Batch of 3 targets.
Target 1
Amino acid sequence: MRSGRTGFMVLVGLGACATTAVLAREIALAPSTPMVAIADSPKEVMDQAWQIVFRDYLDTTGKYDPEKWRLMRRDLLKRSYTGNKDAYEAIRSMLATLDDPYTRFLDPREFKEMQIDTSGELSGVGIQLTVDKETKELVVIAPIEGSPASRAGVQPRDVIVTIDGKSTKGMGTEDAVKLIRGKAGTSVKLTLRRKGQLLDVPLQRELIELHAVEHRVNVGPNGVKIGYLRLKQFNANASKDTQAALKDLEQQGVQGYVLDLRSNPGGLLVASVEIARQWLNEGVIVSTKTRDGIQDIKRANGHAITNKPLVVLVNEGSASASEILSGALQDNKRALLVGQKTFGKGLVQSVRPLSDGSGMTVTIAKYLTPSNRDIHKHGIAPDVSAKLTEDDAKNLKLEDLGTLKDPQYKSAESALMQQLRLVGSNVAPGSYKPGSSNVPAALAKP
């Protein structure tokens, strides 16, 4: 969805996290004023980036001072730039003073790759990366399911210490991605730190095909049909894929659902809203606030596909768009959350094109759940805690996810059965009303 004019994209949550196969982000396309054609000048490109921050930046770090920002522009415009490379370095240095890892510059190659990535056309080893705000280390958000990284056992929160022997100390996500990416069939070796131990992980790069949704019918106790959906990323096809999965599962007569958002790093904001509307008939989904206090509220529109009981599985790798969806379902009492506290990313970034084909992301707002929770750095706590032990994680195979070999899924299935028993004892089958569930009763022991 693009306007007929030059547009920009808005990133929510993990908007600035890089990945060797995809940029993990929440993106909503929004209209913008037409960009005036200007001369192909490195200085003009630098000034465009400066203007974007000056107009729209939401300071969450306390490092932005408008007066100092003006003085910086004056200094930068006095300099001579021999080419785009000089301007790009100036832009990166300028943005670094904000101490905001989510406000960053993208050269033309990176900007084009980001646009391709959000469409679901991926290549690389499949690792979503971010820079830890506190330690400044490169941290794995989550490996993409089925990717070389996933098969090699890379885990959320792993710290990348070296890439092909080169230290990542002080390295940003852009530089890390450049080192990790490469042609399919070639190799790269990562050294990871996990709980104090160093692990060498050799990976072979390959083309990665991402399917946003997997679904099936699981048979629970007493033959209960459970619709299981694993949503792996909120890409351009996620809403359509989820809708198709829900309709298929409804036709198969499922009695309740488990929606698996574990290690889902995010994606398109519009997808998270559209998918929330497939579960919610009414209520606020998410709100965003800019530095000027302008609030945008997304609501359900009365077109839910199903109103049957729902449990959502989350973990520390569930981020951004996953947190928007989880927060909307939890706050509207439409679903129980089972698993572990989510990643905790609640900032909104917009992606702006610059005149030479490069671009930048800039933090412009924060988002809140329907009950006005600011989950940034805090995450969303599940209603039912269910952790994977180290042995569980080590022994759990990809094909075991969403089965009784998966301890967290077993907890989710148990919570869903509690919901179904509650519904069966109070109302006619199939007439579960979102927002009216008695959560304490649903969590009571059978």
Target 2
Amino acid sequence: MNNPPELVTARLRLRALTEADTEAIVALFADPAMSAHFAVPLTDPSRVRAMVDRRLSYDGPAGMGHWVIERDGEVIGLAHLRPSEELPGRVPEIGYYLSRAHGGKGLATEAAGALLAHGLTGLGLSSVWALVGESNVASQNLVRRLGFLDVGGGDHYGSGPHRVFVALPSEHGKPHHIAMPLS
């Protein structure tokens, strides 16, 4: 059962994805740009509903799971911190999707930073990983701003070449370059 903790930042609320969020997520992925880096576009509402159902059935480590990203009560994105389905050892992997209408304001960085801080500091994980499509330069720049290190590449998620990034806690036990959530 998906039940990650709520995370609050200066401008955002990240809360557990619920069944009631399904239509908001369908509307979010109706924009073809939202799945431009996926093997199969998620513009088909039935595909999005199936994806939400898979996320709602998440049964992994406590504190991890799937969040909606809200700003002023509006669902503007989707995020996860969960064991990787692509990397060996089921290492913790972060992912985030933000509506284009809310892009360019640092909100994706804020949301991803909150998840990263939650993973490294809140959960005490030894690392958090990110897989970013080779063509997704904006997302590569985002994870680099958060202190992720590019450690290689490979074909992942059936959508071609990805860069593999890892974030590690600093020598002081806190992640590099991350603003901690307010909650």
Target 3
Amino acid sequence: MGLRELLIPREKIFFQLLEEESKNVLAGAMAFSELIQNFDQLADKRNRIKDIEHHGDEIVHSIYDRLVKTFITPIDREDISKLASLYDDVLDYIYAVVNRLYLYEVDSSTEPMRRFADLVLKSVREIDFAFASIQKIKASEIETRCNEVDTLENEADVVLNESVAALFKTNDAISIIKFKEIYELMETITDKCEDVVQVIRDIILEYS
């Protein structure tokens, strides 16, 4: 039985909730990018991203609650749970970066930070397109989006290697420790995006 036959109207709420989560993560990625590109009002922007992250937690809890109460789901309940959890990780790491910037009293963004933020936003946009295509079973469209996320993650690996290498050419031990941690967290966001698209790929392979 294909995915179309498994779609029961009353259970499409799962797709709606996943798309709601995707839009919320996109809002977080946009706020993150804006913060990095325009490095001001850090405390206020940190609070804004924390609110977005908290709303994401609420969406995920709603998904879990419905999974417990629903006998038939449109796709495997484990896949729904994985998607919700892994995409929530993206927001968690975005907030983790912003929190470090605030706690470490970073006063300006660096070129690697701006590159990472751009890669994160592009990755999340691609995933948002993929999420919107899951219910419609647009396998070729989804694969294109997923491949782009893979490419962006590879670019983030390069940025991490270059930025950490540049750090160790300086003599400021505190800056090395501080910025190395921030860069590694930013690269991890793209890793989490890649984890999300792998689950999306698995769903399409299983049900298309």
